Amino acid sequence: MAIVQSYAQPVEQNVKVIVAPDHTDWQYKTGEKVKFNVSVLQYGNPLKNVKVNYELGPERMAPEMKDSMQLAGGLHTINAGTMKTPGFYRCIVTAEVNGKKYRGLATVGFDANQIKPAAASSPADFIQFWDNAKADLAKIPLDARMTLLPERSTEKVNVYHINLQNFRLGSRLYGILCVPKKEGKYPALLRVPGAGVRPYNGDVATAEKGVITLEIGIHGVPVIMDPVVYTNLAAGALSGYQASNLEDRERYYYKRVYMGCVRANDFLTSLPQFDGSNLGVTGGSQGGALSIVTAALDSRVKFLGAYYPALSDLTGFMIGRAGGWPHLFNKDNVNTGSIPDKVKTTGYYDVVNFAKLIKVPGMYSWGFNDETCPPTSMHAAYNVITASKSLFLALETGHWMYPEQKENMENWLQKQLKVY
């Protein structure tokens, strides 16, 4: 499954199903009962006598309750259940108006700040495994190649298509580098991608403010080809890459991806225009995961910004709760299943185990209604971070962001980069 890179807010519809809990902060104590207020709006006004179906239960799990009701007065309150252990509880409501179905949901947290990772501990040799991987990477020549893209460059910024040697001899990493034209020393920002296969444009806007930016792809293919090439790759050779070689920790797809992020920093810090100190990393979804991983693996990173990080708490499904994207051990995922070797491998790649190692400031942001990266999984990672951290919650958002979230994150990143 490819996750849309833009993370755009869903398109507005003529009819809206509104589901809202009775606590304005959407948070409860374990054992406390939750009530959901449901209405169906058209042109801002409640529709009366609309039949709705609803289901209740922990997120991404089989519903504990299903029922239907008539919204005679346009508004109805569902007296829902509770949770005895920390986690997230969801109410999904569907309504049919003029033959078209509409859907809304609300997800509440029960002692979310107490959610712990599903796996009690990291693999005993977790740090050694990644130290060895970085040592092996350091032996591979960078062999950086830069091609100026005049059509993308601006009055203030040179834009390049770059490729580096990564992971092993002959394996390449591609991206879009943006460098201020004015002579001087500049901070640097690595932008890591969400899931999927696509071309990239680079971050020219931030570069124009006096920052070296590098936006990378993860699949070892150029990032300026015709879009149809990526569509074909996503449907062909790269279909299901998230689980590729999952039974072997040395060959699992994300080893080259994680090392590629470190290799990107090798390149950024080698540039003569780099100020030698200020290096950050940011991304959303898969990119949120890679931001945490990169900051944990690479001491050159001084701060990170992560939206709704994927690959977090991957074995959550095995203890009866939602696990992080790509939901490898969901009982409905017939491609992977809970095979011991695969479970063992995920211990070396699960974001919660990298989150424990974070030592630099981080800004994080997500919503409770995310159905791709479950909030249970994201809080499992966030809660183990001991470094300076801040969480911007946009409660009703799913796997997308409000403009305010992006503005808040970008302002914070620019402050860290010392760009005002």
Summed up, what is this model?
The chain has 420 residues and is an alpha/beta fold. It folds into two domains: 15-114, Macroglobulin (MG2) domain (Immunoglobulin-like, Sandwich), CATH 2.60.40.1930; 126-416, Rossmann fold (3-Layer(aba) Sandwich), CATH 3.40.50.1820.
Our measurement of the CA-to-CA distance between the termini, rounded to an integer number of angstroms, reads 38 Å
> Mind describing the biggest β-sheet?
9 strands, mixed
- By CATH, the superfamily of the largest domain comes out as Alpha/Beta hydrolase fold, catalytic domain
In spatial order, strands of the major sheet run 10-11-12-14-13-15-16-17-18
Annotated CATH architecture of the largest domain? 3-Layer(aba) Sandwich
Radius of gyration: 22 Å
Low-confidence stretches: 1-6
Number of helices: 9
Q: Kindly state the percentage of residues in helix.
A: 10-25%
Would you tell me the structural class of the helices and strands? Answer: alpha/beta
Tell me the domain tally.
Answer: 2
The CATH topology assignment of the largest domain is Rossmann fold
Tell me, rounded to a whole number, the average pLDDT.
95
Order of helices and strands: EEEEEEEEEHEEEEHEHHEHEHHEHEH
So what's the overall shape? globular
Can you describe what's shown?
α4 (253-270) crosses α5 (286-297). Mean pLDDT is 95; it is low at 1-6. The chain is built from 9 helices and 18 strands. It has helices spanning 126-138, 204-207, 227-235, 253-270, 286-297, 340-346, 351-355, 375-382, 403-416; strands spanning 15-21, 27-28, 35-42, 45-46, 50-58, 65-71, 75-79, 87-97, 100-110, 145-148, 157-165, 172-180, 186-191, 212-216, 274-284, 303-307, 362-366, 389-393. The protein is globular. A hairpin with a 2-residue loop joins β3 and β4. By secondary structure, it is an alpha/beta fold. The protein folds into 2 domains: 15-114, Immunoglobulin-like; 126-416, Alpha/Beta hydrolase fold, catalytic domain (Rossmann fold, 3-Layer(aba) Sandwich), CATH 3.40.50.1820. Helix content is 21%, strand content 29%. The strands form 3 sheets. The chain has a 9-stranded mixed beta sheet with strand order 10-11-12-14-13-15-16-17-18, sandwiched between helices.
